Structure formats: C-alpha cells, structure tokens
Amino acid sequence: MEIYERRCVSVEREGVSFLKKVEKIIIRILLIQFICLAFVQLLFIHKSSVKYLSKIVYYEGVVTQNKAEILQVNK
C-alpha cells in the first residue's frame, strides 16, 4: 500500500511540474504576442510607414492621385 501511495504522489508531482512547464510556455507566447502587437501599433502611429504596412489605403484609393469626374444628378 505504501508503494502505491508513493507512486501516486510522484505521478501527481510530475503532473504538476508538467502543468507548470506548459504554463510557462503559454505565458512566454502571450508575452511575445503582446510585444509584437505593441510594436506593430507603434509602426501604425507613424503615417509614413502606414502606406507600406496597411493595404486598406489601396482599397480606399488614398494612394493614387487619380481624381474621377463627379457627375451630379438632380432629381
């Protein structure tokens, strides 16, 4: 009975140490993601780098200097 109890305790300790390792890995991943997010947000603050990083300006047509003629329709 005593051997069984010792084995259970050692298995529980191994499980706890495994969970602590997984927790450390998850915390590191979250920290790296936060640093990358903060860095990209800082890059988006500078207007000179937005046109190279963001494609939304191409969809909106902000980059091109072509001006279309406006047709007015009176009802």
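(ticket continues) Second input and output from the same batch:
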Amino acid sequence: MYLKSSLWLPNDFMVDPVLLALKFTQLAITKGVKFIEDCCLEEILTEKQRIINVMYLLIVQKWSWARELGFQTSPSVRIPTQACEYICLKTKPMANFPTIHNPEEPIFSNGVPDAFHFSLLPDNWDDFYWILSNTIKRFPILAESECETLITIANSFTPDGRLIMNESAEVSYLFNE
C-alpha cells in the first residue's frame, strides 16, 4: 500500500505525547501522586469492573505494551494500538512545510519482547529510502532541505493516528494516555 495523496491543514495540530505525559506527571506530583517507573506491570486486578490493586488510579501509557496489557486484564480492556517502527527524518526548519506522518511499518508481529525497553533502534536508511524518494516526488522542495538526523524508534499508534486520552469503557479508574 502506498500513500496516494495528502492533505495539508494549516490549522490542524498534533500533541506531542511525551511532552504531554511529562506535563501531566509534573502536575500530578504537585498533588502528591507517587509514580513507579521502570517496572514490569504484569497484571491489573479488578473486581466488579473496578481496579482493586493497591493503586487507586492506573494510567496505561500508549506505548508498545499497552495493548497486550489490556488483553490480560479481566474484563479485557480494548486499547487500539499497534507497535510500529517509526522513522523520523529531522530537517532544518522550512517555512510553510507540513509534518509528514506515515506509520505503516509494524515492528513486533509476535508481540513486544519482554526485554525491550524504550531505546533507539538502528537507523535503517534502506527502509526509509522508498518513503523519502516518494515524498520528494510529492514535495520537490524537500530535496533541497538540509537533513539534521534520522531517528528510528519503536512507537505505538492508534488506527487514526490520534492520541488516546480517556477512562477505559471496561474498567473504572483505568485510564489510557
């Protein structure tokens, strides 16, 4: 499947989920919330469709593991995400040029490995070349741009590419972010 067209909406925007999560974290800490990081959450205990763990409120970040964790919850929580290889080419600023986003390459077809931790993946210019060459055909000015860096990471996307920020419909006090 190839991108056949595009649409530029000058007033449209996307929220940076990392910066948003950091801001929410800062605000929560000022309210006395304690965070536990760099741990493996293997199970969410529920009773009558409410969380009964020690935690009163659980926020599941929309990263690669969220979907699998949702399936392990009883009742099962639907978190519509797909782990993908995300390649980002950062160029020097260009006036009136849109952000081009095409998250189509699945990375973990057999689930996310337990040992995987948020880290950069090796740059893959071979995989990125066809995207870049076809993008230049649609936006010739991009050929004149100055490349700063190529970043390859594992990321997780929703079917519509939008941020999920809501309480789960299946379990009270379980939030997707």
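Agent notes: The chain has two domains: 15-81+158-177, 82-157. The chain is about 20% helix and 20% strand. Closing as not reproducible unless the customer responds.
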